[in-house]
Fold this protein.
Amino acid sequence: MENNPDSQNFKAYLPAFFILLLAGAIGLAAMLLFTLPTIGPRWLFFFFLTILVSAFFLPVTYFLNLRFPSHPPVQPAVIIRQAIWFGVLVSALAWLQIARVLTLPLALILTGGLLLVELMLRLWEKSRWKPGDAGE
């Protein structure tokens, strides 16, 4: 891998990573240990699960975008958005599993749908990119 001076370092994402990780882990642990399974804590479960999974996938999405670069290069908001997609997917799968309706084909359809949405967003961003933009 070559050193590209335009590519950002993961150090820029470390504050967001640690804030999301701590908020998700502490919130999920507190919610599981100190609440009853009523409607409010159930939504808190999905909220904290989304935050925690997004934190875990932030380095993964950073590495994937570093390993498979695109032209124009991705903005930091795109890497964070892609990590949030993973959190949303895991929360949706957990919701379906709690309701006992999750199947492998349904999980694959949801995953494919979110991948398609991200692909369409990236295509839209590429179509609006101009060589003189600030991201280059």
Residues 1-6 have pLDDT under 50 and may be disordered. The CA atoms of residues 7 and 73 lie 8 Å apart. The radius of gyration is 17 Å.
